[in-house]
Structure formats: C-alpha cells, structure tokens
Amino acid sequence: MPTSPLPCPNGEGWDAAQPSPTKLLVTRTVNSVEDLKCLVADYEQFDAFAFDVETTGNRKVRMLRLPGPLPKGTTRTARTSVLCPSCGREFADARRKFCSEICSKAAAKDKPPLDARTNTVWSLSLAGPGRSDVIPMGHPDKRKQLHRAEVFEILRPLFFSGRRKINQNLSFDLLSIAKYYDGAIPPPPYGDTLILAFLLNENLDSYKLGHLSKKYLAYPTRLDSQVMTAYGDEKLGEFAYRVSFQEAMRYSIIDAKMAWLLWWKLSHRLESLPKLADLFDLEMGVMRVLMEMRQHGAYVDVAAFGPLREELEHQVATKEAECLHIVGRELNLNSTKQLAEYLYDELKLPVTKLTATGLRSTDAETLKRLARRHPFPAKLLEQRDIQKMLSTYIGGYIPRIDDDSRIRASFNQAVAKTGRLSCSEPNLQNIPARYRQNTEGTMVRRLFQAPPGYKLIVADYSQIELRILAHQTRDKTLLYAYTEGIDLHLMTASRIWKIPPELVTPEQRSIAKNSNFNFAFEGGPQRVVQMSGISDADAEAVYEAWHKSYPGVKAWGKKVKRFCWQHGYVETLYGRKRRLPEITSDDWKLRGYAERQAVNHPIQGTAADVAKIAMIRVNEVLRQLDAHLVLQVHDEFVIECAESQVEQALPLIRVAMEQIHKDGKPVLDVPLEANISVGSNWSEAKA
DNA sequence: ATGGGTAGCGCG
DNA sequence: AAAGCGCGCTACCCAT
C-alpha cells in the first residue's frame, strides 16, 4: 500500500516554508452535537487527519488474587481482610504483606504508563489542513460537556474510514479509543510520526513530540515554557486533567497540532525515498499486528506463580545461608562491591578480569574460574541463578498479570536501531530457555500456556541470520550448504578439522557452531576460547581454518566497512539504514565498534525486516481462524490456536513464513526454513 | 527520598 | 593491539 498523497494545507495565509502552528491552526472547542456533526462533515473532505486523546486513571499497577495456600497458621475463615493501600483490593490479613510489598514495588516504578486498555478518555483533539478542534468529554469542570458514547458514535465515520490517522505514538491512542468501539481498532492507513522520525533518523537523542517539533518545525518557543514542559512530560493527559478547563483545552490540542504539522513536514521526505516509504508502510502494518497482540495478551498460569515464588524464595534463602556459612560473616550477595572485597582482598583469589570501569569483576565467567580454588564461587553461582529467576521473572511478572490471567507487554518499533522489535513492561523476549545446572531452566516458559481448548504453536526461523549471511556475502560454500540443505555446523566442523562429516564429534560440532556464529560478525578467536575452553593456539587455528573455508565472509566485511566509511551508513536488503558516524573516528576503539556494527546491521536488520513481513502475513492467516499471535521473539512466533484448527493452521503458517518474495523473486538466494511445533505450553511446544 | 550510573545476566 | 551485535530489568551505590 503506497503512501497516500498528502492533503494540501488550505488554511488562509498558509506558508509552506514557515509553518506556524499557533497562528494558522486556530483551535475551536466543540460543545454541541450540531458542531460535532459539522466537524465530521468538514474532516470527511480530508484524506488524512491527526488526532490525540487525553486520558486519565487506571495506571497499570494491578494486584492479582493469588490462589494457592495461605501461609501456615492462618485459615480462610479468619475474616480479618484488609484493603491494600496501593491497589485497593481486598486481601486476607495474612496476605497483606505480600500484597503491599508487590504493590509498593510496582508503584515505585518510575512513571508507570497509562494503560490504553483501562484508561478513560476525557478529551479528543483533531487537526487537519488549516484547522484544529478539541472535544472535551469528561474534564472535571462544572460546564456541560458531550458524552463519550455520543461523541465516538458521531466520529465513527471518520475513524472507520480509509482516511489516514496520524499521531505520535499512534497505537496508544488507537487502543484507547478502540474500547469505545467494542474493541474494534480503527483501520489503516496510519501515520505514526514517532516511527516515521525513527525511520528517517535512528540516532536522535529523543523522539518526544516536543523535541521532534523543535528540531523539524522550528517550533516557536514563545509558546510559553509552561506548555513546553507540559508536553515534554509523557503524562500530559494527567497533568492537563488537573488544571482549569481553559488551560486543559489549550494543552489538549497541542499534540494533535504538532503531530499533524510534523507528519506534513516529514512524510514529504518519503516521496523521494521509495525504499523507506515501503518500510514505513511495513511498520504501520506491523503496528496493527502489535495492537491486536496487546489487546489479546499472553495467557499465563496465574495459579502457579504464587507457589513457584514461595519455592524459589525458599531455595534462594537456603543458598544464601550456605554462602554465608562459608563466608562466616555478614555479606550482601547482591553487592558486587562487597563480593569483590571478599574474593580478592580477603580470600586473595587472583584477579583475572576487570569490569568496563576497571573494577574487579565478579561475573559468572570469573566465578567459574575461581571455583577450582575455593568452594564459595560455585555456591554463589547457584544463588545468583535462582535469585535472577525469582526477582526478574517471577517477582517482576506477578504485578503485571491482568485480571483475565494475561500479560500484556509492549512491543516497541522505535528502539532497536537494527529494526528489531524490543519488548518491555515486562520484557517477554528474554525469558530463560536454556537448560541449567541448578534450576529448572524452562520453569518460567512453562507458565506461558494455551488456555483451555487451545494449543500453543511455536514457529521459528532456522538459522535465519546465517542464511542472510550466505545471501549477502555470496560465499559459494555457504550458498551451497543452504541450497542443498546440508547441516552447516557439521560441514563447518568437517572443513575445520579436515575430517569426513561422520567422524565429527558432538564437541567439534558445537565448536563449529560457535565459530559460525562468532566469526560471521567479526568475532575473534578469543571468544571461542571463552565459550568452549580450547587452547589459544587451537582457537587461532580454528579461526584461520574457518575463514579459509568461507573466504566470502571477510571479503564482504571489508566491502561493507568501506561502503560505510564512504557513505556514513549501511543498510539492509530492504533499505533500512543505520548511520555510523564513528566509522571514521581516529580512536581505534570507537572505529572498531562502528565497524562491527556496520557488519552486523545488514544481517540482523535484514532478519528483522523479514520477521516483520512474516508477522503481518502470519497474522493475516490467523485472522481467518480462531488463533492469535501472542509473542514475537525476533525469529520466533508464539501463536495461540484453537485445538480443532491446529492442523489447518500449521501449513498456512509455514507458507507465510517461508515464501517471502521481494521484487517478484524469493527474497534470499537460499531457502527460508521454519521449525514449527505444537504444545500446551511454551516450553513444551519449543521442544 | 530520588535519580543516574554500573554490574550482571536473561534472550535472539 | 584487540574485537560479535541487538535489547530490558534488577540490584546496588553514590550523588543531589
């Protein structure tokens, strides 16, 4: 879908070269149904408009009813229930501690964002060519305002039309108003100025609307500093809600105006950048998928969280006691400072590694080395393992489980400079997956389940980055391996040690696998030593043999670095740019870093582009079934599917992921391959 | 008290 | 000489 032509601003005295938001976009406050209907008729003449909502209430700090056993010594009949001061929910006395503990922890989180699922819209602003309007509908002011239900009903033809909807961070606003349409999300085309700005330059310090306006619109600072600070604040809606009606209206309209002007200014640039225009359309398509994912959420087994938390608390306490028994005095095991003092000053263990700031390291790699000399480091490693599980994954997730037993994380499109998605609040892209020595590595993944009557389908790309490497480098051995469907890691091992594939040991294959992964992105031999524990000399030999096997890789790396040095940027197959100004630095450290980023971006970035295309296609397929995307972990999709439709879904998902074309040809010169499996929880489906 | 920086560690 | 990249979160520590 191409970017639609822009409406020409038709305000009187409009000067394209010098947009002046405050003068030309006169704001009107709408307070009658007649005015509102006129407004809709007017805006229906435009093929694009900006809008913005101000909302209040219902921060996403929520407590959940924890099933499971009460602490011993209490009974359910002991009716001394209390209200948690943070969440207002009723709890049995014995659980009060738990409740307030979690709530205060969550409430202490800096500026918890408003939740589009539960907030209340009290004002909606619109901006179009030469005009802007604000519709109050619930500001706490005596004067009469329109009713929400009525307003949204009258606005329906505007939002549910082919007109482009423009805003900064559009998905929040679309989801905020979707609940007034029974959850229906207004359809594309979309124009998110944040994502547009990020696509045009991924290196800005800030993508706040105020800062972008200043940069691109020469926003007149005479619009008083009070307003500047107000909209520099993320929670303008909360702020404006508390000020007088007049002021509130003045604040409310700012973002819609700014977004309109910013879009009008920046989207022009796409006209001369066809590849970026296509990428922008891709991002808007992804945005729609992400909004649906957020509405749906990821189902978890709430009932299991409480007992698991207790179990881990017990384990971590035991490990801590064991550690402190060895130490023989007070010591905070979570303090790297105290640990370094104990390990290196008191025990006089050898220092083998320093941190970035020159302090003596106590990380897992170092502790593993020290474990041969003293019993403490090994015990500490076990404690850390459990502590991480407990604090980050169990404790961190509990306050974020919604009432319907689902976690709704945000997937962000304008964070990772390579074009990957990032995930936060909570981050569901870093849940432990690997096998572990001391703890059940997959216990958290097992909590992500299919609801009754459903199955989880896990679909991930097989070695997508190495396939892209083969495509980009044109290395004939890599191309051969993938077109012929040969086990690349096995082949690598066979070539490194010059032995027939059937004689390759599992250990050799593992080293070869690490090599493929490392050397592709300018990794050195030292890293292989760290990962597999072979000698420096052996690693050096592996390094040489690897590059001799795949000469196209180093040659391509040189080419990319030269291109970056000449142009100041590199790009993916789809033209997603990454600017790397430090590529010309005299400082070898900075330059070296930029060079590795330059080589990495076309690989990781292209994989991200392909994954985004696949996401949209997979979502399109699922739309026709009782199935939903619930998670994306870079090259992996987790899908919830009605049990009866799984068999039907599997081949559709495979085609959506593997048959990706560009310019009428398969996107890569080697096949894309997806592994797809089914289970009742995330861990089971992955296996 | 609260904010920024650092260390450490989880994932692809 | 020395080197994968990309993220987010928790805890601690020291500053204001």
Short précis:
This protein has 27 helices and 20 strands.
List keywords for this structure.
687 residues; alpha+beta; four-stranded antiparallel sheet; 27 helices; disordered N terminus; DNA-binding
Structure, explained:
The chain has 687 residues and is an alpha+beta fold. It is built from 27 helices and 20 strands. Helix 18 (464-473) packs across helix 24 (551-567). The chain is globular and about 80 Å long. The protein binds a DNA duplex (12 and 16 nucleotides) through helix 14, helix 16, strand 12, helix 21 and helix 25.
**What structural class should be given to the helix and strand makeup?**
alpha+beta
Main sheet properties? 6 strands, mixed
User: Which range does the strand content fall in?
Assistant: 5-15%
Q: So what's the oligomer here?
A: single chain
Layout of SSEs?
Blueprint: H1 21-24, E1 27-29, H2 33-43, E2 48-56, E3 82-83, E4 90-91, H3 96-108, E5 120-128, E6 131-136, H4 148-159, E7 164-167, H5 170-178, E8 190-192, H6 193-200, H7 209-217, H8 225-232, H9 236-242, H10 245-266, H11 268-271, H12 274-296, E9 298-299, H13 302-327, H14 336-346, H15 364-370, H16 376-397, E10 406-407, E11 410-412, E12 422-424, H17 443-447, E13 454-461, H18 464-473, H19 476-483, H20 488-496, H21 506-519, H22 525-532, H23 536-549, H24 551-567, E14 569-571, E15 577-579, H25 588-623, E16 627-632, E17 636-642, H26 646-658, E18 661-662, E19 665-666, E20 674-679, H27 682-686
Parallel strand pairs: 1-6, 2-7, 7-8
Antiparallel strand pairs: 2-5, 3-4, 5-6, 9-10, 11-12, 13-17, 13-20, 14-15, 16-17, 18-19
Helix pairs in contact: 2-4, 6-12, 7-10, 9-10, 12-25, 13-16, 15-16, 18-19, 18-24, 18-25, 20-21, 21-22, 21-23, 22-23, 23-24, 25-26
This protein binds a DNA duplex (12 and 16 nucleotides) through α14, α16, β12, α21 and α25.
